[in-house]
Write a structure and sequence with these properties.
By secondary structure, this protein is an alpha/beta fold. The chain is about 35% helix and about 30% strand. It is globular, with a radius of gyration of 22 Å.
């Protein structure tokens, strides 16, 4: 497949802090890639390198066959950073027209606003929009130039469930038409709902890179749920959570966990062993990396 964006052995330092450590990553045409990682993992730095806002300390970055520093190359991408500022005196339609004027073949204004559920706001001043409406507009603007590749950094932060799903539909429509997307998110269910490929980063390095299903299988973790008042400390438990009257344990060895549970003599009921979610896999991958570093 055609590579639209690539980093090769990229390191980025901010003083003594290593934000990215020899990261190599290819984004292929037609992919919808979810980039996961805790705060400080290097997600935003990676996107900033791809879109030309930062330069690598070492290594190379390629965008659409050229350099991210070339403004002509950057016309082929769309970007929504984590934080955006829009002129509050302008109307929504005016902003879309202004941004679209920088591209040779922009998406028609009405089509773009309809795709992201903003058509009723076309004459509203930006200063009169809610925080969620401003965020939806910022995401929509990433698509106005008919880009080949879109970078979305935490696109749905601060949105309610309905607004998030509206944006998901717009992103899915772009991808279904052959567009390529790289998005970061703190909402693991968002990446699971949208992405076909998941890249997990931590401490500036790529910890996993595969399909959603494969990332789950990489760590082989299982979710063991049961009803119990108190539990002893059990070996091999990656995380513990209480919800809806049940205890949820994430472990890489569910058989051993059940044996240790029975041997502990603690009364319990309603034992279930379930397949993992992407969130469970993410916790396991980052926990393993932290243990390795320690």
């Amino acid at each position: 497949m055609t590579v639209l964006a690539r980093t090769a052995e990229v390191t980025r330092r901010y003083g003594d802090v290593v934000a990215l450590d020899r990261v190599s990553l290819d984004i292929h045409a037609g992919e919808l890639v979810g980039l996961l990682g805790p705060n400080g993992a290097g997600k935003s730095t990676l996107i900033n390198l791809f879109v030309g806002l930062r330069k690598p300390t070492s290594g190379t970055v390629e965008l659409l066959g050229g350099s991210p520093a070339d403004p002509v190359v950057r016309r082929g991408i769309g970007v929504t950073p984590q934080e955006t500022g829009l002129p509050e005196a302008l109307r929504v339609g005016e902003i879309v027209d202004f941004v679209g004027s920088h591209f040779p073949s922009p998406v028609e204004r009405g089509e773009l606003l309809a795709r992201f559920g903003l058509e009723d706001l076309v004459r509203r001043q930006v200063g009169g929009l809610s925080g969620g409406q401003k965020r939806r507009l910022a995401v929509a603007l990433a698509f106005v130039g008919n880009p080949r590749l879109v970078f979305l950094d935490e696109p749905t932060t601060g949105l309610d469930v309905e607004a998030r799903r509206s944006l998901w539909d717009g992103i899915k429509a772009f991808h279904a038409d052959g567009g390529t997307v790289l998005l970061t998110s703190h909402y693991l269910e968002e990446v699971e709902a949208l992405a076909r490929r998941v890249v997990v980063v931590g401490d500036g390095r790529v910890l996993a890179d595969d399909s959603v299903q494969a990332v789950r299988e990489i760590v082989g973790v299982r979710r063991v749920t049961l009803v119990a008042d108190e539990l002893p400390e059990l070996p091999g438990v990656i995380s513990t959570e209480r919800a809806d009257g049940r205890v949820h344990l994430i472990t890489a060895d569910s058989d051993r966990l059940v044996i240790d549970l029975v041997r502990s003599g603690v009364p319990f009921s309603g034992l279930e062993i379930q397949p993992t979610s992407l969130e469970d896999a993410f916790l396991a991958i980052t926990a393993k990396e932290s243990a390795h570093v320690a």
